[in-house]
Queue: 3 jobs
Job 1
Amino acid sequence: MKRFWFLTLVLFLSACSHTGTYKHSGSIHVEKSVAIGENLRANRYSDIYFAPQPSEKDWEKLKAQGFTHVINLRSDEEYDEQKEKSKMESLKLNYTQVPIRANEELTKSTVDLVTQSVMAHRKKGKTLIHCLTGQRAAFWAGAHFYQDHNQSADEALQTAHDLGLNNPHLVKTLKNFFSENKK
């Protein structure tokens, strides 16, 4: 009987030490070039997809594929936002526009607006975050993971890269965001 209790104690202590020493690596799992919509390629983290501008043919298929929320990062100056908003309303998709301009610095408040929109709809289905090429969507993700998921600047830059960021100007702007928002 003493042996049973000794073994139980050893197993218990070893289980406790395992959970106490677990370290989060800071990396996330990204699935690249996932086919969605009619003929659209996106990078996926969890139930959030990062993509370039969907075509008119993509929207109804996205709805059928379980997308419930669209976040458009394009500004009114570059795109007919009202047309897209009307399309989303007709499909009964939640729609948010948070303009991120490639030629401006990214602010914490802009990152927060996109994050709040994602969180408000996260449990309802898949979310699509898009801009013209997908670069600003990945750019936002890098800032978000740095700011809200405690990734280091290097980890967040890698996350952004994994989600599609390769524009040198946006990479530099993201690094500026890290510098201006040091932890």
Job 2
Amino acid sequence: MAAPEDQDFETRLANAKDSSLGQVLVKAARLVNERALARVQAVPRYQALKPRHLAVIPHVDLDGTRVTELAERLQITKQGVGQIVDEMQDFGMLHRVPDPEDGRAKLVCFTEQGREWLFDGLAILSTVEADLREVLGQAELTRLRRSLLKVVRALQSEDA
């Protein structure tokens, strides 16, 4: 049994987390990701995909991204990214092509199959959205999407 001061700490921490927009966004993203991953892995051709593979996908630009840039974005080593990219090449999702700006460098790009799989992933995410629609209703879900798009645009413009 937790000591009263531990229960007080847990309550204060839970309240602080619930009051933090950043914490709520991070937790919501994690939970959406976990639910989507479970649904992805239920599709036979995607069973080999792991969270590390899905974590790379949003960081690969459509015109290609260098491994060093992916490592920066994911906050992992170039070797770690290289291994994940190798695995995703084996799945047929990604491939490496020469960087037109630097012949010594390679860009990680989606294969044609990988580009199609992006739409499969979005379809799976729409099933998670349907779950949320049941809880929030269409109007609130639409407002949430619009608000989150404003957040994304604001944060992207600050990064530029």
Job 3
Amino acid sequence: MAWKPDLTVAAIIPDQGRYLFVEERIKRRLVLNQPAGHVEDGETLVSAVVREVAEETAREFVPEYLLGIYLWRDPRSLRTTLRFAFVGTAGERDAARALDAGIVATHWLRRDELIAREARLRSPLVLQCVDDHCSGKRLPIDAIHCSVCASS
């Protein structure tokens, strides 16, 4: 049987001790996550994270570095996620742009505020990425080599 993890990207967006999160409805449950999602066919990892931030927060995202690569298996569904987390900056919200279906709101939260909501985290990767950012982890984006290109 072929192993096919879900290939995802996530944006870690810090600003003055707070981080940008999305509150989203997943299977009738409200959860907190970084702006994140699946990589679509023909996308690079960087273009995927820029798109996901725009769709989920109505903000332009500028990735600065790769925080880390995370492999996690959900004990309930047994699905495996391979997550590439990028740190960067985001512009102001475009009020004219609607948020993706399922996104209820966006929130700027400090780590302690996130801990207080730990039961609502989409996965343990949410807090792990914040902790890795706080510890100073950084990898250059050019460490990722991608020969994927969109069909023309």
